[in-house]
Write a structure and sequence with these properties.
Elements: E1 2-5, E2 8-11, H1 13-21, E3 27-30, H2 34-39, E4 47-50, H3 53-63, E5 72-76, H4 82-90, E6 96-100, H5 103-108, E7 112-116, E8 123-129, E9 134-141, E10 144-148, H6 155-163, E11 167-172, H7 184-191, E12 194-196, H8 199-202, E13 220-223, E14 226-232, E15 241-245, E16 249-253, H9 269-288, E17 296-299, E18 313-314, H10 315-321, H11 329-338, H12 347-355, H13 361-365
Parallel strand pairs: 2-6, 3-4, 3-5, 5-6, 10-11, 11-12, 16-17
Antiparallel strand pairs: 1-2, 7-8, 8-9, 9-10, 13-14, 14-15, 15-16, 17-18
Length: 382
């Protein structure tokens, strides 16, 4: 913790998350408006209250009723600004009041890292943005490392690679993301690594295309003592691309998840969703279905929430639990389109930023709101 304003101290997002994971006896006061709180809020807090800042001035006694003077209070807002004002106003009311630095934005960017059991010559680390359900990967072989779908904030990847005696030589975005900001360009620059997207992504109008080392289906990317194979997996988007680690694992991007298939409308829109769903059906049937049951799927999203370890499943397990995978084409398309949740908040602006549109970093960070909804399942919406 550090002094950030007179009488007000903050708590780093990672330390706040550690308290939540440890079930610490703290009270979390969320000062955002009630609609924002209803749509997305901190999970797993023992004591959580929505106390909108604009209401505290007139209804503080009502909103804070029942909280003892000895309470340890954590105040959170969207970006960590309003929470400081509220924390300052409450300093004399409670024993300890800390403002969560960076607010919901900062908390949502906390990463949890877990080793994934994959056969040699690969070491794989899964990074989970549990607040938003985003997954990214560090793949290490022979002293070189590849990072797939990095989140904003590159330090954890650099630190993990260094701890494993590896240098990040490649950064790979599976597609142009619609639900979260990509950290790929920043990480490639910081590591001096090659930056990869598919040639199909270039056709979507990347403004930084000259910085890309484009890849195509079937390409092999050398990595230390081994190589990984590029696998085109269109359907979720036209540029959706995965990486096969031999037959041991498939980093499948947003093509297939451990409990669902992808939604097909985030690039195509309502008018193109039917055709994209047909493309997804072909991808799953022609490209994923031939892979062995024992192949481990490493998805790039899940529904969010704290996990004790890495989220993985074999393709055999997924084939037994995802009903869409046994449907004929027309039934598949009908089912997928009938289950589409609302589009992610700000998704068109997020796509624009990930294509290279210039925007101040603070403004861009505010676009990430709520749990991702990249699957064809309504219950994925946080």
């Amino acid at each position: 913790m550090s002094q950030i304003a007179p009488l007000v101290e903050d708590i780093a997002p990672a330390d706040f998350e550690a308290e939540l994971r440890g079930r610490a006896d703290v009270v979390v006061l969320d000062t955002r408006d009630r609609a924002s709180y209803a749509a997305w809020r901190v999970g797993g807090a023992r004591h959580l209250r929505n106390t909108p800042e604009e209401e505290l001035g007139t209804d503080a006694d009502v909103l804070l009723a029942g909280l003892p003077a000895h309470a340890r209070v954590r105040v959170i807002c969207h970006a960590g600004i309003g929470s400081r004002r509220v924390a300052a106003a409450l300093m004399d009311r409670f024993a300890e009041v800390l403002s969560v630095s960076g607010g919901m934005i900062g908390w949502s960017r906390v990463l949890q890292a877990s080793d994934v059991p994959v056969a040699a010559p690969f070491d794989v680390v899964q990074f989970r943005r549990e607040a938003r359900g985003c997954l990214s990967y560090l793949v290490v072989s022979g002293g070189e490392a590849l990072v797939v779908d990095p989140a904003p904030g590159v330090a954890p990847y650099l630190e993990e690679a260094e701890a494993r005696g590896a240098r990040i030589t490649r950064v790979f975005d599976t597609h142009v993301h619609a639900d979260h900001l990509s950290g790929a360009r920043a990480l490639a620059s910081a590591a001096g690594a090659a930056l990869h997207l598919s040639r199909a992504a270039l056709r979507r109008g990347l403004r930084y295309g000259d910085a890309i080392a484009p890849v195509a289906d079937g390409d092999r990317l050398p990595l230390g003592d081994a190589s990984v194979r590029v696998v085109a997996l269109p359907g979720h988007t036209s540029d959706m691309t995965g990486l096969a680690l031999g037959e041991a694992a498939l980093i499948g991007g947003d093509c297939l998840f451990t409990d669902s298939v992808a939604r097909p409308d985030l690039e195509a829109g309502d008018a193109g969703a039917d055709e994209a769903a047909r493309q997804l059906f072909a991808t799953l049937g022609e490209r994923v279905a031939p892979m062995p049951d024992a192949t481990l799927l490493l998805p790039c999203h899940y529904a969010g929430g704290r996990l004790p370890g890495p989220l993985t499943a074999t393709l055999g397990e997924i084939r037994g639990r995802v009903p869409e995978l046994v449907l004929e084409r027309e039934a598949f398309v009908e089912r997928v389109l009938s289950q589409l949740p609302p589009t992610p908040a700000n998704h068109l602006r997020i796509i624009a930023v990930n294509l290279g549109e210039e925007m101040p970093a603070d403004d861009a960070a505010r676009l990430e709101v709520g749990v991702n909804s990249c699957a064809a399942r309504r219950d994925w919406v946080g």
